[in-house]
Amino acid sequence: MAMMKAYQLGAWGEPAQYVTVPRPRAGPGEVVIRMRAAGLCRSDLDMMDSKEGSDPYASVLPAGYTLGHENAGFVEELGEGVTDLKKGESVVVHHMRHCGNCDFCTAGVEQHCEFYKRGDIGMTRGCGFDGGLAEYLLVPRTELVSISSEDPVKYAALTDAGVTAYHAVQTFVHRIRPGSTVAVIGVGGLGAYGIQFLKLLSPARIFALDVSQRCLDLATELGAHEVVRSDGTAESVIKEKTNGKGIDFILDVVGSDQTLQLAAKISRPQGRISVVGMQGGSVTVGWNRIATSCEFALSLGSTRADLQEVCRLAADGALRIDLEKFSFGQIPEAYEKLRKNDLKGRAVIVF
User: Fold this and answer.
1) CA atoms within 13 A on the CB side of 198
2) pLDDT value, residue 122
3) DSSP reduced 3-state for 134
4) Same domain? 108 vs 20
5) Exposure string over 299-320, b if 16+ CB within 10 A, otherwise e
6) Statement: residue 121 has pLDDT above 90
7) At which of 281, 298, 315 does a domain end?
8) Residues 184 and 170 occupy one common structural domain
9) Domain identity same for 17 and 154
10) Over residues 272-285, mean pLDDT
């Protein structure tokens, strides 16, 4: 049996490590990918830091899987019935697993698939199932998007950070009108993409909020119209800059107590607060606590159609994609830099 190297989370509460595992083979309707690039994500750290039985991961998922949910590579082996791809073709992986048969899958919102959901967690590549921090990855054909002959390294981080931000923006972008205001809270990997999609897809006046001056400077480079330090003065600064009105639409990619409470305070009637961040914060909503008729929603993942659209934008050169590259042997080092917020771009493991 052919073997390969992988980087696995073997048990909750213990560090992930390199292991040797069997190399996958393609069954009917499946594709084996030779991995070229795998992006690292802060949620990987949350999983590695989880104690047995803790929310949101260890309470509903068993450990013992390969990490890596931002995956891109080359077709290596085609299973029976897969006729629309060829060996060597570049592909990206839609990391959200889906059955294709439940109510949500048939409605085109497969990220909410009932079959692959455990609690509030949608099982994905690298979260409950083997991900791409390995030499090869086995994927159903239905979870792949072809990028033809494009370089997979450029696209890896788009498969989660990029497309998750895109989907969250899509939940309200159709309601944005000239003069509308949007706030992006947190200008990290997802927030930076959120600003770009808002610039590309809407006429909104974009506010960027972060505690880091470096991130605020990046937001300005990406086209944000206003940058605000996310501290105790943020609410008053926002109100001053909007003539007391507040913000129509808010994208919170942090999800802490502080950011959720700030979002509620600066919201406007008939707006929407779309929360992507998973820092476990909470906020009290009700009369005089959030603007009337303002929607408050958790935005989960993306659809495969979202990923196709983001890949088209990237192929057209419409997106700025900042990466810091590491080798397969440098995975622990890359995660440590991610933990310390010491990265110049999205961390990507290049095979």
Assistant:
1) 33
2) 82
3) strand
4) yes
5) bbbbbbebbebbbebbeeeebe
6) no
7) 298
8) yes
9) yes
10) 89
Count of domains forming the chain: 2
Token code pair at residue 175: 């309601």
H or E element that contains 307: helix 304-315
Q: How many CB atoms lie within 10 A of CB 229?
A: 14
Q: Is the pLDDT of residue 310 over 90?
A: yes
d(CA 307, CA 296): 24
What is the DSSP pairing of strand 136-140 with strand 30-39? Answer: antiparallel
CATH number (domain holding residue 20): 3.90.180.10
Q: How far is CA 165 from the centre of its chain?
A: 6
Statement to judge: residues 306 and 252 lie in one domain: no
- Could you tell me if 148 and 182 lie in one domain? no
Instruction: Return the CATH number at 184.
Output: 3.40.50.720
User: Could you read off the pLDDT of 202-242 as tens digits, one per residue?
Assistant: 999 999 999 999 999 999 999 999 999 999 999 999 999 99
How far is Cα 262 from Cα 260, in angstroms, rounded to an integer?
Answer: 5
pLDDT of residue 350: 98
The mean pLDDT of the chain is: 95
Let me know whether 46 and 149 are in one domain.
Answer: yes
pTM for this structure? 0.94
- Residue type present at position 196: Q
Kindly list the distances between the CA atom of residue 327 and the CA atoms of 33, 36, 270, 297, 340, in Å, as whole numbers in the listed order: 18, 10, 47, 38, 19
Co-location of 120 and 8 in the same domain: yes
Tens-place pLDDT, residues 5-58:
999 999 998 889 999 999 999 999 999 999 999 999 988 999 999 999 998 899
Q: Domain residues for 274?
A: 164-298
Residues 141 and 177 in one domain: no
